[in-house]
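To whoever picks this up:

The nightly regression suite flagged JmjC domain-containing protein as changed. Nothing in the input moved, so I suspect the structure step. Input below, exactly as stored in the fixture:
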Amino acid sequence: MQEIEKLGSLSYDDFMERYLKPGIPVVLTNGAASWKSEHSFTPDFFRERFGDYTTTHEDRVYAMREILDITANSTPEHPSPYPILFEIPEQLAEFLPMVEPLHMNYAFPNWFRGKVIPYGRLGNNIHLFIGGVGNQYSLHKDMFHTNAWITQLYGEKKFVVFPRDQEALLYPHDSGFISPINILKPDYEKYPKYRQATPISVTLKPGETIFIPNGIWHTTVALSHNISLIFDQLNGHNFKAWKKDAYDYNKGKNKAKALAMYGLAHAMGSICQVSELAGNKFRDN
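Regenerated output under the current build:
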């Protein structure tokens, strides 16, 4: 993986064979064109439609319009709090129909779009992220080995990914999913192996969607005031890693709970697997 391709036209079968199955990131420049809504998802749109809707970040409640003002004024010297996010199905339910079909004719089967796995559990999330200049996400790979789909609704954001074979160069914490390395200011004395890493970057522009396969280390750097939609995907290709994570996250705290979570994940995933074999495409709720 030497670069992240940007493609304006790609069949579903080609996506499956060239990107999902081998686990290679790709940017779809017009995937979101399949959404029903013709709105431009600008800050003004969210102020007018959802300005009074609230969310909590670090024990403080913020209204949408307040978040938009704070992030618009964010600077590298004084970055806004990040990530301030909304759980779309629970906090912005009226927005969800505007971004259907969420799968954009690519992100299916997605077992999270069925009725078996509860929303908010084991990686089943649909988020709206709002950020500004100076915001940077931690270097990580996604919990529960879900596939990530991120669509840039407004502004620009740089994504940086690392090939799978470079995990040892990133000094992951004991959890296995967070790295202490700041890619903008790496401490080579503390993390000398990082010199051998080969980060690959791509700038996501409004309307573009990046597919980040499970297990890929990545981070983001905001290039402007920006709004992103992020959802996760689970199917037979990452089921094994997903249920293993359900066990691993709990084994250090409570072995019995870890076994119970593994059993629950195995049972729910197996139901989805059988349902898919019976013809369920797992596209929508």
